[in-house]
Structures are given as structure tokens and as C-alpha cells.
Amino acid sequence: MTILQIIFLLTAFLTLLAALRVVTSPSMVHAALWLILALAGVAVVFILLNATFLAVVQVAVYIDAIAIMIIIVVMLTRGAVRGQGHTVSKTWWAAALSALVMLTGLLVMLLQAPVRGALPPTLPLDQEAFLERLGQALVDVNQYILPFEVASVLLVAAMVGAIIVAWPLFVRRGEEER
Amino acid sequence: MLEPWIFVALLLGVGMLLPGVAIAANWLLSPKKPNAIKQSTYECGIETVGETYVQLKGAYYIYALIFVVFDIEAVFLFPWAVAYDKLQLYMVLEAVLFIVILAAGLAYAWRKGVLEWV
Amino acid sequence: MDSFWIDPFSFIGSQLAAWLTGLGLAENWVSLILQLVGALALGTAVLILTFLLIWAERKIVARIQDRLGPNRVGPYGIFQTVADLLKLVTKELITPEGADLLPYNLAPLLAVMSVVGLWAVIPMAPTLLGADIHVGVLYIVSVGSIGTLGILLAGLSSNNKYALLGAFRTVALMISYAVPMALALLVPVLLAGSMSMQEIVLAQKGLPFLLLAPVAALIFFVSSIAEVGRAPFDLLEAESEIVAGFHIEYSGLKFGMFFVAEFLHAFTISALTAVLFMGGWRGPWAEQYTALGFLYFLVKTSLVYFVVIWIRGSFPRIRIDQMNALNWKLITPVALAGLVVTAVAEKVALELGAPRLLTHLAGNALLIFAAAAGLGAYARAARRRSELLAKASKAEAPAG
User: What CATH number is given to the structural domain containing A69?
Assistant: First the structure.
């Protein structure tokens, strides 16, 4: 067992534990905090796979932006801290059954794939060249320029949609002041 | 390949350990006399009324959302900036288009008046 | 083997490595122990530096306010901070009832960890760098925001309405100002062609980026001050405002850790500004004599830190709605425009063969002119609106 494998197993165990606590916490705020731990675990796994750019992107976008937004949205609702009561629904057996079916399907697919050995495949060691190629690919007319521009349109659409959805919050506040 | 990250992990660990040691020293050296009044919630000397829970304004959500959008935009622009030296002018203009579209989104939010704090 | 005077850092490193290998340890363990020693030294040095920083700030702010500042404890009051620390250490740690214990105790540790972690990527000399990772600039953005998370945890777990409100306002402010900071950070990456901090310093050969992109440097500086939460943006920890913000329920050294984190963060962003925009350790003979490089780095960082303290002592506090308006209506659009201007100017200068510095300065001057014109138009519109309101209320008053 190499050091890398030990670190990976530890991180994976922590991430799974945090993910479990996300769905079983009675308090939504606690669930959001466990989510942050799970996302940090994923970032560590990215580093172990030599995908350092993705690891920092994971921390910068998921933990710093999206997790904070989730906590703010959770606080916008009522009953966030105290909890809504029992979190298990009546039809839990159906959910468990479908999860089991999906797990079996995934295991069958993974076991049939060619096994590469104990170590994960590594990206080209020259990270600088990799980043440069990624940057060039994003604006190259033959490669990813269209998804690049469409991504910006998508982000603006998300912003506009969220403003329209949150509009009543502002209108109501304006009326209250009058 | 992972060597610099080991240092990062060690420094982050040291960054958590040193304050932890300092706070432990504080805990050892401090008097411990818990008292119902000392431990009650602080509100400038007035008694607390109601639950310690506030409902936030919509403005917090809008700021968080716009931050998410611009954070993702910055993340998209970082590889482009790294590859800048090897790009031609039209490629730079494509990224400028990307930025302009997002600036238009910000201008929409401004006109809609959701950037006010009140 | 380099001599001690030419390159003290590599010299000490290689001596230590030779001694450890002489003890019979394997290669991996030697490098691991060296890195552990380095991390401990860096973390301790940076935290002990905070004593000096707090003292310097108190003296300088006092002089700006025409008084002396601490001058009793030790020569010129240097040991004042040590005395304060000793006092804080013996304070009782009062935990409020109903507080969430794990986030409550974790928050100060996270705040300090995020600031200390930033020092891993700051190049202090040609051979003195903690970790030369390829994504250094993005690492700064991400680790810097872990401090925001610490503040959020502190507010959420304190079981106190005002701590909650203060924490959310602080977090809203910090994430708002993180946008122009990230956009301004793109400019040195653009000009240097790499995200590694050492590469950015190396690319400032002959021309610091401060001259090539003054607008971006200014925006990074201002939004970093807002991120740290120092005056004039320190509304959220002002005692006359929201009690004490998110750290109401913290006592003793737990509060002390938030305090230390804030001062250290101010020094860290001074170091970042010096490295990214002023050339870091660059200076005459810095490559041959690395200790000189370290000296240049310290001088530049102290200069920027002095400006930070100067700003603190000179400006009044800004209201929170003014802070947000300033960010979203002025600083972010200017940051976006600055990025566009620098990107286009660099390529245009390259293709047309125009002198690089002049093109950039012209572009930035145009940008500043446009921003000033925009501000003037905004101010005129606001004044017209308030005049209309005054006229309307005056028209109502005699009638009513």
C-alpha cells in the first residue's frame, strides 16, 4: 500500500461520511456544512489525480461560491436551524431499491472495463503546457469556441432567471417601506 | 509532481495547529467559572426575545448569485489568460465578447434595481 | 555548494538535507522533513510578525491622529502587543449557551489557516518559495475565500441574532469584493502568461506591471482592503454599529485569533500587491545575491502596508449601502473594462509594433477618463433626483 493509496482511502472515507451526513442531518445548516467537507474531499482527490487546476477551481467555485450561496438560500427559508422534523419519507423502500439497482449496474460496468493497475492514469506532467492547450482550445474556432460563448449566455440566463424569481422579494420590501 | 502540494498541506496544517495550541494554552490558563448570566446571549445588556434566528433580505441572495456567475466567468478566463501569448487578435476579441455578454447581465441587474441594498 | 552570503536560503536547505541524509534517512523522508521544517518556520515567523505589525499600526495611526501611541512597555512600546497577548491568554473562554460547538471552535482556526495558507505561494526571494504550484493565482482566490467561510461559521454557530446578521453582512461584502479582485488578478496572469507566482515575478523584468496596468493594480489593492475588512470598509466590526459583528460571542484568544488573522491578512495582501504588481523581489543584483531579493521584497511590502495604514487613518467609514453600490456600480465595471483594455492593448501593441508601455498607459488613461465621466454623470443624476425630491416636498409643505 503506497502512501498515495492510503491518503486516497482516507479522503474517500471522509467524503462519503460527509455526504452521508448531508442527507441525514435534521438541520439544513448542518447539512450545508457537511456538504462543504464533502466538496473539500473531492478537491483533495483531484489533487491526487494530478488535476491541480480542477482542484483549485473546485475550491474556488464550489466551496467559495456555491456552498455560501446554498447557506444563504437555506437561511432565506424558515425553520432552517431547528430542522423540519423527521427526514425519512414514507416511500424510502422504493428509493433504496432504485439505488441498489443503479449500484449493481455501475459495478457490472466497472468490472467489465479493462483494469489498468493500481495507480490512476496521470495527466501529461507538464501542467503549464496543459493549461495553455486548454486556454487555446477554449477560443480556437475549430474546437470549443461555441460552448465557450454559449456558457456565457447560459450564465446570463441564470442571472436573469434568478432575478425574475427573486423579484417578489424586492417588490414586497418596497411596498412595506411605503 | 505532488511535492509542492505536500508543502501546501503541511502549511495549512500548521496554520490550524498553531492557533489551536494557542487556544489550548488559553484554555489551560484561564479561570473556569461558568455562570448562567455570563453564558446567556449577548444583546447589549437587554434580555433576548424570541428565537435567535433572523430571516435575511433578498439582496443577500442576489449578491451571492452574481458572485457565483462572475466567479465561474473568472475561472473560464484563467486558462485563456495563461494561453494569451500564443493567441491571435481575433481569439482575444472572442473572449472580449464573453466578457461583454456578462457585463450586459450585470447592466440588466443594475437597471432592474436589484443591486440596491436599502 | 553555494556560499552562505550569495544564497543563504539554498545554502541552509542543502546543509540541512546533507545532515539528514548523513543520519541515514531515505530520500523521501529527507524532503518531507525539510518541508515540515519549512512550513513550521514559515507559519511561526508569520504569526510572530503579527506582533510587530500590530505595534507598527498603532504607532502610525497614533501619529496620524497627533498622539504618541503605546510607548511604555519596552523601548517605543514594542512589547505592548506581547502584554496584550498575555492579558488575552488569561481571559475566561465563555461559551454561549446553545452554541454549536464544532463550528464555533473551528471558525477562528479556519480564519487563521486561510491567511497562513496564502504564504505558501508568495515568492520572497529567487530561491525562497514555499510551493511553486502552477495555479498559484487561482490558489490565492480559493484559499482567501476559506476565511469568508470561517466568518460564516462563526456567525451561524454563535446562537446570537446580531452575530448572525453581522456575519451575513460581512460575508455579503467579502464575496462582493471578491469579484473585482479575481478580475484584477487576471491582468498579471495575462501579461505574464502563467499563473505561477514565481513566473509572474520573473516576467516583470525591467517593467513592473504597476506601470503597465495601473488601473488593475489599484482595483486589486482597493478590493483587497475591502476583503480584509479594514477601514474605510470596517463597518462590520465597528463597535458603534452592529455591536461587534460576527465575533460578539468570542472571548479570550479565540477572539485574538480573529484579530491576528485580520492584521496578518492586511500584510499578506500588501505582499501580494508587491509581488504581482511591483516586481516582488526584483531589484538590482537580486538574482545573484538572493538575500538582497528578500530585502527588496520586505521593503516593497512594508511600503504598501504603510499605505494601507495611511488609508485607515485618513478616511471616514463608508456605509454599507455605499460600499455595495461602489462595488457593483463602479469597481466591477471598471475591472471588467480594465481587463478588456489590457488584453486588447497588448495584442494591438504587438501587431502594430507600437511601444508597449505607451499603448497600455494610453488605454488605462482612456479608461480612467471614461470612469470619471461615468461617475460625473451618475453624480449629476443623483443630484437632480434629490433636487426634484426637495422641490416636491417644499411644494407640499405650504399646501399641507
Answer: 1.20.120.1200
Q: Is B118 contained in some domain?
A: no
Report ipTM for this prediction.
0.87
Residue A28 domain boundaries: 1-82
Q: Is residue B67 part of a domain?
A: yes
pLDDT at B22 over 50: yes
Rounded to the nearest 10°, the torsion over CA C365, C369, C374, C378 is 120
C14 in contact with B, Cβ within 8 Å: no
Cell 464555533 sits on residue: C104
CB contact under 8 A, C320 and B117: yes
Cis peptide before B19 (omega within 30 of 0): no
Pick the residue with more confidence: A78 or C118?
A: C118
| A107 assigned to some structural domain | no
**Helix locations, chain A, DSSP H:** 3-24, 28-48, 52-57, 67-76, 92-112, 127-139, 145-177
pLDDT for the residue numbered A87: 61
Domains: count for chain B: 1
pLDDT band at A120 (very low <50, low <70, confident <90, very high): low
Give me the residues of A, 19-58, that contact C with CB < 8 A.
29-30, 33, 36, 52-53, 56-57
Does A133 reside within a domain?
yes
Question: What is the predicted pLDDT for the residue at C77?
Answer: 78
Q: C8-22, C189-203, C364-378: which range is least confident on average? A: C8-22
> Chain B to chain C, count of Cβ pairs less than 8 Å apart?
234
Entry pTM: 0.89
β-bridge partners, C128: C125
Specify burial of residue C284 (Cβ count, 10 A radius: 0-12, 13-18, 19+): exposed
A72 plus A132 within the same structural domain: no
User: What is the pLDDT averaged over residues C237-243?
Assistant: 56
Alpha carbon distance C139, C160 (integer Å): 33
Domain CATH for B22: 1.20.58.1610
What's the CA gap between A71 and A33, in Å, rounded? Answer: 8
- Asked if B89 and C88 come within 8 Å (Cβ–Cβ), the reply is no
Question: How far is Cα C356 from Cα C351, in angstroms, rounded to an integer?
Answer: 11
Instruction: Decide if B117 is inside a domain.
Output: no
CA separation (Å) from C53 to A34, A170, C85, C263?
Answer: 36, 44, 14, 7
d(CA C360, CA C356): 6
Last residue in a domain, options A47, A82, A117: A82
Give C125's strand partners: C128
Residue whose grid cell is 460552448: A147
Q: Which amino acid is at A149?
A: E
- Number of domains, chain A: 2
Nearby residues of B23 by Cβ (< 8 Å), 6 or more positions away: C93, C105, C108, C109, C252, C253, C254, C257
Residue A28 lies in a domain: yes
Enter the C-alpha cell of residue A132: 495553455
Residues A69 and A9 in one domain: yes
Grid cell at residue C26: 531515505
SS3 for chain B is: CCHHHHHHHHHHHHHHHHHHHHHHHHHHHCCCCCCCCCCCCCCCCCCCCCCCCCCCCHHHHHHHHHHHHHHHHHHHHHHHHHCHHHCCHHHHHHHHHHHHHHHHHHHHHHHHCCCCCC
Q: If contacts are CB pairs under 8 Å, which of residues 45-104 in chain B contact chain A?
A: 51, 53, 55-58, 60-62, 64-69, 71-73, 75-76, 79-84, 86-87, 91-92, 94-95, 97-98, 101-102, 104
Q: What is the pLDDT of residue C249?
A: 78
Question: CB burial class (10 A; 0-12, 13-18, 19+) of residue C110?
Answer: buried
B11 at C interface, C-beta within 8 A: yes
